[in-house]
Amino acid sequence: MSYKTILAILDTSDNSTAVADFAFAIAAESGAHVIGLHAEIISAVPLVAPMEIPDPVAVQALQDMAHSETIAVERIFRAKAEASGASSEWRSFATSTGYGSAPLIESARSADLLIASQADPARPSDSHVDVDSFLFETGRPVLMIPYIIRQPKPIKRVLIAWNGSKEAARATFDALPILKAADEVEIFSVDPADTALQSPLTAGADIAATLARHGVKTTLSTAQSVDKSASHVIENRLSDSSIDLLVMGAYTHSWLWQMIFGGTTKTLLQSMTALTLLSR
Fold first, then answer.
1. 10, 145, 183 from 99: Cα distances, Å
2. Domains in the chain, start-ordered, CATH in brackets?
3. Which of 41, 42, 267, 11 is nearest to 119 (CA)?
4. SS3 state of residue 190
5. What is the residue-averaged pLDDT of the chain?
6. What Rg value do the Cα atoms of the chain yield, rounded?
7. What is the per-residue pLDDT for 199?
8. What does the alpha-carbon distance between residue 217 and residue 183 come to, in Å, rounded to a whole number?
9. Which of 40, 61, 7 is nearest to 127 (CA)?
10. Omega of the bond leading into 146 within 30 degrees of 0 (cis)
11. Cα separation of 93 and 123, whole Å?
């Protein structure tokens, strides 16, 4: 198994260089085809009081801004594609509903892997992709790039946040091409349950055995949250172990989901140091 169709979600010109770089770097490892996807978002029409009629000047200005952004993003993508020599194509759709529109969702559903960038909180924009709903609607894995990481590097150390859920299982198998190429893969469970099928000490043993049959060497580790939340335990593990990639189910650790999509403080956002592969 390898990624053969990679979809790069190019929401803004600020993010496009990093997303394209990561997409073509991953594509180079497996000869994948890269699709650059952009939504040219048509903003709400400004109305002029007291008659509340559309302001044609403002409407044209907004449309011109959106189209200029599309041109800038396309230029970045095509330059990266030419430099890489990889198979690629460009897709752009004008829409008033952003990345939730049907053509974009349909494009994403046919990809093996989606790649998107976390928004930089210092650069707010209406055109940032709504990855939350995008992931929910497409059902495809999303590789999120933290805004503090702009250059691709080899993914050598991977942490799987394992809680036995279907989301965690899907994420793990979606990450298989990356896991097989990694040097170290750690299956990490926080507060594992003591059940008839496993003890806390053997949490993740079954998935470790399955991965071993795919040629992935893993280590098992567990931790107790004690007076901390499970989220902080995982966060500390990421930094302490110099992890390159976190693999997790999208709705199994709400702290990270909120952190990626701006639901927590700027301090937490800055603490996100690893690429994150999300599935649900």
1. 10, 18, 35
2. 5-145 (3.40.50.620), 157-279 (3.40.50.620)
3. 11
4. strand
5. 84
6. 20
7. 59
8. 8
9. 40
10. no
11. 23
- In a 13 Å sphere around the CA of 66, the CA atoms on its Cβ side amount to 22
| Tokens (6 digits) for 71 | 């041109």
pLDDT digit string, tens, across residues 208-219: 999 999 999 999
Instruction: Go through the chain and tell me how many residues it has.
Output: 280
What is the predicted pLDDT for the residue at 268?
37
How many other CB atoms sit within 10 Å of the CB of residue 21? 20
For residue 244, count other CB atoms closer than 10 A to its CB: 21
More confident residue, 40 or 271: 40
Percent of all residues in the chain with a pLDDT value above 70, rounded to a whole number: 80
E-strand spans in the chain?
Answer: 5-9, 33-41, 47-48, 53-54, 88-95, 113-117, 142-145, 157-161, 184-190, 218-223, 245-249, 275-279
Q: What average pLDDT does the segment 100-121 reach?
A: 90
Contact of 213 with 191, CB cutoff 8 Å: no
Residue 30 burial by Cβ neighbours in a 10 Å radius (0-12, 13-18, 19+): middle
CA distances 137 to 78, 106, 175, 176, 230, Å, are 27, 9, 19, 22, 27
